[in-house]
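Appendix B. Chain record.
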Amino acid sequence: MVYFYPQKHTTDSLGKEAIKQAQQTRVTQMFALLDQELEGKEFLLGDNISACDFVLFMLLHWGSGFENPPLSFLNLRRFLRNFANRDSVKRVCEIEGTNLDIYK
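Structure tokens predicted for this chain:
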């Protein structure tokens, strides 16, 4: 959220871009950690889907515009593409107006 609302974290209008860049770096490090965690697993907690996977999908989708987006990580890409093909995810994204074409 700091990345998307940097103005809430500084009174210096020139500092907004530095905050966004620092957060992008930080979140990309988290992508790498999650990518490692998903190696050899279909879902975040193993073989069974959980609420964590739905939240992870949403958060990863929000990062799709980063310099190193989740799709640039092997396991995150697999997770996102598989998850975006779930009927429940398609229905919710249709209601929300979220385009899933990047996951095809």
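Further analysis of this model is presented in Appendix C.
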